[in-house]
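Researcher: Please translate sequence to C-alpha cells.
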Amino acid sequence: MRFNTALIPSQRYEPPGGQWWLAGIVYQVYPRSFQDSDSDGVGDLRGVRSRLDYLQRLGVDAIWLSPVYASPQEDNGYDISDYTGINPQFGTLADMEELIAEAKKRDMRIVMDLVYNHSSDQHPWFIESKSSRNNPKSDWYIWRDAKEDGSAPTNWRGIFGGSAWTYCAERDQYYLHTFAEAQPDLNWENPEVRAALFAAANFWLDKGVGGFRIDAITYIKKPAVFEDGTPDAADGMVSVHDMTANTPGILDFLHEFRREVFDGHDIFTVGEANGVSVAELPDWVGENGVFSMLFEFAHVLVPYEEGECWSKMIPWKLTKLKGALSASQAGVAKEGWYPIYFENHDRARSVNYFFPNGGDTRLAAKALATVLMTLRGTPFIYEGEELGMTNVKWDTIDTYDDISSHGQYELALKEGFSPAEALSFVHFNSRDNARTPMQWDDTANAGFTTGTPWLPANENYHTINATAEAQDTDSVLSYYKQLIRLRKANPVLLSGIYEELLADNEQVYAFSRTAGNRRTVTAVNFSAEEATLPAGFLKGVRLIGSYTDAPKDTLRPLEAVVYEEEVK
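Model: Translation complete:
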C-alpha cells in the first residue's frame, strides 16, 4: 500500500463557516458522453442517475452537469433555446428533479451550467429579435449595420473561427456571435435581458441545485465603440477575445447578478473567466467579489503566448506551468478560493496535453492527480480523468464533431500548413478528446451504450475502464480514491498556506502546505528522467506516492509523493 492510513482521522474535516464546497470534490459530467440509458447512443439524465453510486464511492460532493437544456445542439448544448426546459435527448424536467433528489440522498449536489453570454439562434427571443428593427426584443441581441462596402461591422474573428458577425436579411444588419453563428450574443446592456436571465437561474435554485458554473462570463460586456483590431493571422482578422474580454464595467453587471441570484443561498458559484488576470482575481471572488471561485486559464494555456491558435503552439518549460499555478494560488491567498483543474469539456486529455513527449500515461495521470488534490482550493475532476483516459487520434477531420476543431483546422490551412499538419493540431487540442464516451468496462462501446454512440469510443477502453480499475489496487482510479480520502481528512491539505519550492527546477514541481505545526510537501517529477532532490528535502512521514517504495533523495520518471512533518 502506498497510502498511510494511520495518519487519516476517522472523521472528515469540516471547514469553518459551513461552506461545504471548501472541502468538497466537484466532478464534471458531460451528459452526452457519460451514460446512455435508452440505447439511442446519447447519454442522458437517467444514465447519470444510474452512476451516482460510482461517484459517491469516488468521494464526490457535487456533480457539475454540462448543459442539459433544450437546444438544437449546434455546440453540444452550449446553444440554449429554453433556459428552463430539458432537452428531450437527455430526458424530462421530472428526470432532472429525480436526479437532484437522488443525489441529495447521497449527500451530493447537482450544479448547473449557465450559458449567459449567448443563446441559440433558435431561442424565441432571437427569433423575435431578428424579425424587425422595432419589435419588443429588437435590442435583446447585438446588432450593427454593415460597413460602407457592405462587409461585416468589424474584423473580429469568432472563438470557433470565421467572422464573429453574421448577416441577417430580415433586419439588413449583422449580429455578433463570440462563438458560433448559431450562438448570438445577448445584450446585457438591456435590463430586461438581465432580468430574464436572473429569473431562469432562480428557477433552478428553486429546484434545489447546489450551485452554478457560469460559462464564458467575461464576454458579456462589450466595448462602447466597435472598431477593427490589428490582424493576428493570415485571414486578416483579430480574435474577438482580444477585443471584448473583461471589458471595464463588467463587474457592475456581475454584482447585480450576485444580488439577484446568488446571495442568500447555500451554493457555490464558479465563473469561466478567460481574460481575467491573476491581479484581478480579488475583484471577482471572495466576500467583496462576485463568485465563490473563478476558472482562469493561464496554466492550461502554457503552449500559447498570444491567444489559443492551435497552429501557433510553442514548446514550454515546467517553470511556466509552475509559475502560473503559483500565481493563481497567490491571487486568492487572502480573498476567495481557487478551483483546481486540469481537464474539462473544452480541453484535451491532460495526460497528453501536459506530457506531450510520451511516457507512461498511468503515471502521468497519478502525477497530475497528486497536484490536483494537494493544492489549496476545490478540486474539479472531469469525467474519465480519474481513469487516466487519453486523447484519440482519428484519421480524418470529418470524424471530428467538435465545431472548434473544424474552425482551427481551416485556420491552420490558411496559415499555410498541410492537411496532415493541420490534423496534427486537432489531434493534440480537439475538444472531442474529452468528449468520447466514458469508459465503464470492456464490453462494446465501453459500456456507454448498447446502441451506436454519437461519438466513437476511444479504442483503449479494453484496458482503461472503470470496472477493471476498481479491481486493481494500483490503478489510476484507486489512486484517486486514496488521494480524495487523504485530502478530505487532512486539515493541512484543505486550509494550509501554499508555498512553492524548488521554483527554478525544470523537472520537479514541489510545494508545501502549512497549517499550525503541520507541514505537507508535494513533489512531482514531470519529466521522463530521474530527478535528484536536495539532501533532506523530504522529511517526516510519507502520506502517499505513485510508486510502491519510497526513496527520499530522487524521484523516478513521473513519480509523485506527499510527505508530512511537524514544524516549529
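Researcher: Any highlights?
Model: Confidence is low (pLDDT under 50) at residues 1-14.
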